[in-house]
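Request: Mind sharing a record?
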Amino acid sequence: MLYFVATPIGNLEDISIRAINILRECDVIACEDTRHSKILLDHYDIHTKTIAYHKFNEKNSADGIISLLQGGKNVAIISDAGMPVISDPGNVLAKKLIEQGIPFTVVPGANAGLSALVLSGFDATKFAFFGFLSEKNRELKSQLNDIKSFNGTKIIYSSKYNLNKDLSSLYSALGNVKVAIVSEITKIHEKVEFVTLPAEISEPKGEYVLVVEQAEIVALQPSDADILDELSTLLIEHDKNTTFKMIKDKYNIPKSYIYNLYESNKSKIINRKI
């Protein structure tokens, strides 16, 4: 069996009894950084053999791990902190396991994104995780479009090197939204700082989770003149039914109202089109 095992994101006590037992009893632990994981393993007196499994060797190592499983070994996958696969190595392996019909399971535990969401106090009924923002302009533009189009709370990871740049990028896409900047989660100096963009943090340190509050959507209240203008424009390229539906969906106005407005102003609309 292969186990994706969540590890603490700060406080070493944030690990389950099941996770400790699996790490002790499995044959191999594949670590994102064996040196970093040694701190956790030593703390719990775990002496299982470790191998490296990180983003730079992920594809080749995935095949090696599958060979271990096929040879009857039990393998645990851990990242430096939190859940493997989530902005950490493991996705490539999970896909290959599914493709080859090899069973695997998850040992759940700490997660920085969800912890930050709770600490923010923002609406948690609808949220999305976007990981780290790209440093490549084209990919960043696509990410920002996705973030802007999502109607809910947004969770984004950032580092001390990119924090202020990421805040600036979010401001360019979202405007004056409220952001909870969460750091040192589960540690002694755990901190939640609320800002309204634009904002800049002096001397950032460590890793951050940015939780972006969904701005209140103000319903558009078009005047009859606005609707008539749109009717005139849209009817140039669309039939009446399509045009009425487009305006209905945009403004959440009953189709009957749009129809009556059209009938009452048909001559004006025709003149405008001409």
Observations:
- The CA atoms of residues 27 and 73 lie 6 Å apart.
- The domain at 2-110 is CATH 3.40.1010.10 (Cobalt-precorrin-4 Transmethylase; domain 1).
